[in-house]
Model the fold of this input.
Amino acid sequence: MNFLEERILKDGVVKPGNVLKVDSFLNHQMDIALMDQMGEEFRRRFADKKVTKVLTIESSGIAIACSVAREFGVPVVFAKKSKSINLDGDMYVAQVESFTHKNVNNVIVAKKFLSADDHVLIIDDFLANGCALQGLISITESAGATVAGLGIAIEKGFQIGGRVIRNLGYDLESLAIVESMDADTGTVVFREQ
Ligand code: 5GP
Done:
């Protein structure tokens, strides 16, 4: 079992509706030493990749993305959620349905922060149905940039996102893959990696 899986078993809480709550170390209060460990682990897993930028989505992905970006010595760009429908032409826009809030957001990145010669490592905290990652992939490809890889802290392997993204041929690495979880008993079972 790796460091993140151990921490999930210790401090994660399984909620009804297929939600894993990790707000004591990742989503609200944040354990920065853990973020740095994740940064090092993603650096190791994507060691053979050229990376010029780390891209994430606000807000929970940002802290992990910062640790990853420090390891690679590159900037972080985070996609902003915007309710506005009057978006000007200086933005790349994707529509992302939120798994936790059940609403649809425009997510935007200013064109000046992504260009065709960028090699983008996409980072997020959770992977469920894959909408957030699909939006970030779409923004990257709209810029003509290359998706170097995708790094996720916690993938819920019983939801479809991971399978869809891997079937599209992307290099997706998840530090912990939850195979099953049960809100009644609080049990979490990880996929062997
Ligand atoms: P997806 O777009 O893959 O359906 O969902 C990923 C996004 O939803 C992540 O950015 C994360 O913020 C949120 N999310 C999905 N599932 C969970 C979960 O079980 N727990 C928490 N805390 N966030 C989740």
